[in-house]
Structures are given as C-alpha cells and as structure tokens.
Design goal:
Elements lengths: L1 H8 L17 H4 L3 E9 L5 E14 L2 E2 L4 E5 L4 E8 L8 E11 L8 E5 L5 E4 L10 E5 L4 E8 L5 E10 L5 E3 L5 E6 L9 E5 L8 E5 L3 E9 L2 E9 L5 H4 L5 E3 L8 E6 L2 E8 L2 E5 L15 E4 L6 E4 L5 E6 L5 E4 L1 E2 L5 E6 L8 E5 L4 E7 L2 E7 L11 E3 L2 E5 L5 E7 L4 E7 L6 E7 L5 E5 L4 E7 L2 E7 L5 E8 L6 E5 L4 E7 L2 E6 L7 E6 L8 E5 L4 E6 L5 E5 L12 E3 L2 E5 L5 E7 L2 E4 L1 E2 L6 E7 L9 E5 L4 E7 L2 E6 L2
Parallel strand pairs: 4-13, 26-30, 51-55
Antiparallel strand pairs: 1-2, 1-12, 2-3, 2-5, 5-10, 6-7, 6-9, 6-11, 7-8, 11-12, 11-13, 14-15, 15-16, 16-17, 18-19, 19-20, 20-21, 22-23, 23-24, 24-25, 27-28, 28-29, 29-30, 31-32, 32-33, 33-34, 35-36, 36-37, 37-38, 39-40, 40-41, 41-42, 43-44, 44-45, 45-46, 47-48, 48-49, 49-50, 52-53, 53-54, ...
Amino acid sequence: MFKAMKKMLCFFSLGYLLLVSSLAYSDEIQANWVDLGAGSVLSLNGQIADTTDHFYASITVNGQAMTQEAVTLNLTDTVDIQAHIVPSAEQNGKTVEGLIYAEYRFLNQANYQFGFLLNQQNQIEEWDRNPSTLVSRITGQTLSDTWSFPLYQGQFVATGGLKLFFGYRLSDGTVHFNATHPLILTIVNYPLIAGAEYVYTADFDGDGQIESLQFTATEYSYWQVADEQTLSKVWSEGAKVGDLLWTYRQQLQIADTNQDGKDELIFYQDNQRYRIQLMGMSWMLLDSPTSPTTETCATCYVIATGSQNSGIFAINTQGGLDYLIPAENSSWQQLSVNGVVGRVLNIVQAESDSYARIYAINDQGQLLATAKQNESIQVVVVGTRQDLVASSLVVNAKGGFALTQTGELFHAYFNSQTNQWITETLPSIAGKLVAPLATDGQESLFVLSEQGSLFSVTGSMNLISLKQIMGIPALKTGVLALGQLNSGVFAQNQAGLLVRIYQQAGVWTTETLTTEAIYINRLISGETGVSGKVYGVTNSGQVFNTWQDDNKAIHFNYLHELGMIQANSLLANYRGVFAIDIQGKLINIAFQDGFWQRQLIDVWDVTLRPYLIANSLTGVNADLFGITANNQIYSALRNGNRLSFSPLW
C-alpha cells in the first residue's frame, strides 16, 4: 500500500528540480491564477486562525488553464502547477521556510487518510499529518510583497486523489498555509470527455469493475471497463428537461445504500433523499417516498425575504433574481438585480445586519451574495468553490453554510472590519455530510453524515469546527430539525422512530419519542417560545407535532385538522401552522382555547405551489408569502378566522 502511495507522490520529483523563484506578479500571470482566498495560521499549540496572507495557484492541463481549485485529470495529461503567496504586510522582510505537502486517498475511498511531504533533497517522505513534524522544502527565503514558485510539472504516474497544501513557517514555528482551500486533484486512468463538467465513478452494475458517468454542457455518457484500466463508452444521452440524472447532475452522491453490490446515485431535494440505480441499460428511481418534482428553480419561482427589512427576492423563470420592495398604497416596486452568475438554484435570507441581503447557490456550484448599491442590487461571487450543493444552503448568525459535493462543510461570512469575504471548508470527521443542515438561525447548527452520525458546528464566526456527537443511534439522512428553547435536535433513526438528541449535564443523550414507525418525510422547527416544538410530515402526508411539558416530558400528536398536505409547504409561525394540501389550496390551523382549530379559507380559483415563507418584513401586513401555479407571488393574511389572499406582482 505504501509503495503505491509513494509512487503516487513521486510527482514531486518527476524529472524536474523544484526551483524557488521570485517571479514578478505581472498582470499576465495574475490572470491565470486561481484565487484560493485568505490563508490560515497554525500556532505551536495547534490553534488555527485567519490571516491576511493571500494564496493563489496556477494550474494548466495540456497547456489549458484551469479556473477552479478542484480538477479531474487523466494519467496521460501533462500539468504545470505554480504557487503564489502574497504575505501579510507584517511578514515582509522575515526569513521563512517553504512547505509543500499533500494528503492522499485511493480512488475508491472518500477520506484522505495518508500524508506525504517534499524535503530539501527533493525526496518524498511519509508524513503522519501532524503539523509539528512537517519538514521544510525550502530554507532561507526572505519574504517580500509576493513569492511565486513551482509545485509540480509533468505527468502523474498513478491514480488517486490529492489535496495539495503550500505555505511558509516562521522562526517561531507558526505555519501560514492555504488551509481552507487546498488544490484538489483527482487523477484517473480512463478517457475524459472534452469539456466534462461532472464526473462520477463507481461500480454501478455490480460486476466488481469501475464504471463512469460523465456530464458535459450538452450530454451525459456512460462508460464501462474494456480492458484493465481503460474505459469504453457504452451510450450517451442528450440534455433533456425533466431527466433526473440531468436535473441533479451537479449534486449527485454515490453509495451502496441497500448493500446489493451496486452503487446508487443519490441526491437530496427538499429534505428528501432519492436514489437512482442502473437497471440494465436504463436508470430507475428506487422506492422514493414521493416522486421528486422535475421542476427546478430554472422553471419555477423560489422566494426568500431579505434581511434588514429589505424586501423579497425571488428566482425567476430564467434562473435570475427578481427583487421586490414594498411601496406606497400597498403596491410593490421591482428593483434590478445586476451581476447574477449562471442560473440561481436556491436562496436563503442572510444573517441579521449582514452585508448581504441573501445568500444563493447557482448551477455552477458557486456561492453568491447580494448587496444594495443605490437603487439596484449587486450580486457577488463568494470564494472560489464550484462544487456546492444547492439544497444544503442555510444561514445563521455565523454566516452562510453549504455542503460540497464531496460532503465537506463550506462556511462564508463578510468581515466588515477588513471589508472582505472570508471562506473556509471543513472536512468531515467521519463520512460524507448530507443535507439538510438544521439551524435555529442563531448559533446552533447540526448536520448528519451519510452513515447517520450527528455533528454539531461549534466555535466563533471566524473559527468554526465540527464536533461528532457520540452515543446516539444511526440516524436516517434527510430528516433533521431543531426544537425550540434549547430542547435538542430531532431526527429519525433507521428503524423509522422519532428521536430527540439533547444535552443533559453536559453529556449528549437520546430519547425515543414514539414506538410507532412513522417514516418521516420532513421536519421543521416550531414556533419560538415553545420547548421541544417541532413539526413533521410523514410519507403519507400526515402532519404531527411535539412539545415539552413542565416536567420535561416530550409529547407527540397527529394534527388531523390539517388533512393530507404537500410536505415541502409546511410552515409554522406565530399565526399557527400553514400548508398547501394535495389540491393546491392553502390551509391554516391555530391552537386556540385548548385545541387546534382549522381556519376558514377564502375560495380562490387558483392552484398554489408547495412553497411558503414567513413574513419577516416590518410594516408589511402579511403572515406569509407563496407562489401560485402560474408563477405569481402572493401574500396571505389571517383576519380573525379568515385568510385573505393578495397577488403582489
């Protein structure tokens, strides 16, 4: 095994001498660098913090410049990778050691388990991934305004995955490096389609050999093993609206969830997990509780209220953004939104008093944020990642969070003191992280791994970490919510039972809330001020809630007054519980005089989409906003025992 890894890491010394240079950072060179963002500084006691160092890399494959930090390439490809550091001003003139090191994984493994470094003799050394044991590649380098040097030139000699890090070490032992944005290289040994945007490899047919599914901008194709490590194309399909593989091509995950020897393709949509398996020469959706809609945000509205009472943002039918603000005489005014990149797939309200009004993720896997400039809204791209999963996007007081396609946690926030965006990516401690993330919008944030382990996201805004919560049962992915008033995290175990995970005397413990296997489709947090309050929807469309009494006991109850609803529409606010039923009508129930009462609904000659958001805009007389089937945004207001309906635009 170690021989194979040594062979892999021999790329550091394949026929060239790593020369340290002080290349001028000309405009021509700058245009080719991939921006890896601000670096991190690691102290001797293991504490990591942000630094104003800035890291860049230039990656060319067969002479073509790459624009992303994660690149898939073939063994036959020739690459040239250069590093560039802009040290923080206070480091100028200091003498440092240069560091080059990497983490490695085999292609059939998700986690990076082994480490290697390059020493001063240009030799590969195994590295225990302990920062204190890093050996320098370069010595006696005096820092100036910029520092450029080559990382690798040539061809790779073995397949695998690499995370490449570089940086410098000061005389006091602190290390400055590209901690949150390593260069991620995946080296394969099969043909890649020209212009391939997404590549998935697995044993899809259960024959013990690797197969590949590759997507370009216009088609996807399926490849099988022909001889040893060479793949041949079996078939290809053109892009088709409504095709599941094509619709979710940017967020697919791979796992053998039913242990039948065949890997499935997995995607998450609206808090549900869907599995697609190869059946002969076609792909089939497996035992999903409800069929996922073939409509995405490219063909229907998704809306979110902006922070700071700024108005309503909506994804329009072209995948751009609309922005509506309340005007006089109960009318609404539309402002222009400039700078939208790609098609927007998901949007969420930003943290309070944020530089951004909303966060968004586009079809290129990038994080976007908006800011108001005079009478228009400007969109900016945050960070350099291009593999974020749109359905995982959430926000709390610490900034915006999303998952990468490889199951890592991405975090972004705006530092108002330095007037710049800060981003970081945290690897999972054990297994891929999967949507949804559960947050109260304040400090708490929880996420599940693919194997059903629960993690909390702890720390301050500029220094977060993932902490695994031990001693809990294996949980079902796709179902997660926070109870109110610090009453715990609610989830479902693999047996279909509702469980509560909470802290007692500083120790995490678990409680099964019902002995009935209810098979939950979706969970949401309840109203503020009610302990233990969550709402859920079963696979059959039934709604239930939980609450905690004065003796700390959790109670469970079905809300039959709502009838059968569409799971994605469930909303709870101070007015009660709202949902869209299976006929596309709005329903509201409220707890009054000791029991739930169903509110009267005005008869609307319109069908509503299963998407509701609570009104958070001061001075706007509405309980919620929603979308009609013909893409009109509407507001709803409960007056006494009646709900009024009003299109906005």
